[in-house]
TrEMBL record:
Keyword 4Fe-4S: yes
Protein name: Lactate utilization protein B
Keywords in alphabetical order: 4Fe-4S, Electron transport, Iron, Iron-sulfur, Metal-binding, Repeat, Transport
Domain 4Fe-4S ferredoxin-type, first and last residues per copy: 308-338
Highest taxon listed in the record's lineage: Bacteria
Annotated organism of origin: Streptomyces iconiensis
Coiled coil: none
Gene3D superfamilies, alphabetized: Alpha-helical ferredoxin, NagB/RpiA/CoA transferase-like
């Protein structure tokens, strides 16, 4: 069974561990800086870049306002083109549908296109439990799968691994699952890529069933789109007899003209390329061309939870480009695993609480995994206001909202204020209302200053100092200083 993020520690604890890993930090820093430099160069070539961002955000907002209509239109077109459509409310239902479809074919090994949605729902483990072996075909996903690792980036899941580590994984693991790595393989990227191609070739030619996701779904024609850099996905989409695509319900664009906007911004934002080397599209089935059977599984898994929130739904604009991670100073220092999800970085800090709710410790910690510097807002090609959403999620958590909402009208529940908090604030408020009592409290604080610990406060106050240093307590108040110095003139 593949590793999962189930039971992963909360971000503060996980980040303490990952920030100590100097090799991981160097790998992530080198990769993210390369991506951001290429992104800046490619964006600088487009004088209409801001207009493209405006258009992309507007199209997504229109889709989210009329999602039911576009989904119904998509379903009709897919069926007309010879495909079959299924609806899955959550991960369990999606896994059950897909596992059943594969089991009906009698195949025990299938190939798979890189898909964050299938990672999100844990599809590989669901298939493994049914005795079905799933082989990843994206180079980065091969590294993750062979190394029994977890993805740490949306676009490049193995960004935390360097060439030497990848070489060692290929040497030790490839032969256990098919063609072994050649004895003359080196750490050169071309040599590693050649080894993966040879390993995959026999799987492509043998596979009868493939599973994919999709970057976009075009409602007007029922067309699905996969964007990639290697060509391995295209092999999965064309060679097998049966193709099963699992896609989040928010991945719709209304028309091909709208798709043009996203194809211009996705490659630039994700990998700093002017255009993705491979853009594969398919509409249902066609006799003698590609798979003879096509199944589309539309997955909710918390998306309607986010959609119902008028503020939080903006996160569903996300096109999974990873640009926000490449500029995030927190992600650069912690890596993706610290977030405990297949969606790391700023978008993960927003998306995970929206999809899952903020009732558990791991999810509730994510909105605080940000310096709020705003770099992610500037980088996002669909103008998701990530810092605003992070602040609103923090407010929701502080108020005890356990439904993942970032808007108004939440009830207090799990993850709310400490029971001492309200009493403490009331006591402070009552003291501040009486001048004599307040002055006495200020003088007492000055006298007690030397007794306050430099690093951590005791008891119920300890949570505040988990990630903050206690500021020094001055011996006299500002008011006393002002009076003593005649307004600062002496």
């Amino acid at each position: 069974m593949a590793r999962t993020f189930v039971g992963w520690p909360a971000f503060p604890q996980a980040a303490r561990e990952t920030t100590r890993d100097t090799r991981l930090r160097e790998n992530v820093r080198r990769a993210t800086h390369t991506f951001r430099d290429k992104y800046a160069a490619r964006v600088g070539e487009r004088p209409d870049w801001q207009e493209l961002r405006d258009s992309a955000a507007a199209v997504k907002d229109d889709v989210l306002r009329q999602l039911d209509r576009y989904l119904e239109q998509l379903e009709e077109r897919v069926i007309e083109a010879g495909g079959t459509v299924y609806w899955a409310a959550d991960a369990a239902e999606a896994n059950r549908i897909i596992t059943g479809l594969v089991a009906e074919t009698g195949e025990r090994e299938i190939i798979k296109v890189k898909s964050m949605l299938t990672e999100e729902i844990g599809l590989d483990n669901a298939l493994a439990a049914a005795g079905i072996d799933t082989r990843e075909t994206d180079l980065a996903q091969i590294i993750i799968q062979l190394g029994d690792d977890l993805p740490s980036h949306i676009v490049v899941p193995a960004v935390h691994r360097n060439r030497g580590q990848i070489h060692d994984v290929f040497v030790s693991e490839m032969g256990k699952h098919g063609r072994p790595a050649p004895p003359d393989m080196t750490e050169d990227p071309n040599s590693l890529a050649d080894a993966s191609r040879a390993h995959l070739r026999e799987k492509f030619l043998r596979a009868k069933v493939a599973v994919s996701g999709a970057n976009f779904m075009v409602a007007e024609t029922g067309t699905l789109v996969v964007v990639e850099s290697e060509g391995n996905a295209r092999m999965c989409l064309t060679l097998p007899e049966v193709l099963i695509s699992a896609v989040g319900i928010e991945k719709i664009v209304p028309t091909w003209r709208d798709l043009e906007v996203y194809l211009q911004i996705l490659a630039r934002s994700a990998t700093g390329e002017r255009m993705s080397p491979y853009v594969s599209t398919w509409t249902g089935v066609a006799e003698g061309d590609g798979p003879g059977t096509f199944h589309l599984v539309l997955v909710d898994n918390g998306r309607t939870r986010a959609l119902a929130d008028p503020v939080g739904r903006q996160a569903l604009r996300c096109i999974r480009c990873g640009a926000c991670m490449n500029v995030c100073p927190v992600y650069e220092r912690t890596g993706g695993h610290a977030y405990g999800s297949v969606y790391p970085g700023p978008i993960g800090a927003v998306l995970n609480p929206l999809l899952k709710g903020v009732g558990d410790e791991q999810t509730a910690s994510l909105p605080y995994a940000s310096s709020l510097c705003g770099a992610c807002d500037d980088a996002c090609p669909v103008r998701i206001p990530l810092t605003d959403l992070l602040l609103k999620l923090r407010h929701s958590i502080a108020e005890g909202g356990d439904d993942g909402a970032v808007g108004e009208g939440r009830d207090r529940g799990r993850g709310g204020p400490h029971p001492v908090q309200d009493k403490a604030f009331k006591a402070v408020g009552a003291t501040m209302e009486h001048r004599t009592a307040w002055n006495a409290a200020v003088r007492a604080a000055g006298l007690a200053g030397p007794l306050v610990p430099e690093r951590h406060l005791p008891g119920a106050l300890g949570g505040w100092t988990e990630s903050r240093a206690v500021p020094p307590v001055p011996k006299e108040s500002f008011r006393a200083w002002w009076k003593r110095t005649d307004g600062g003139r002496r």
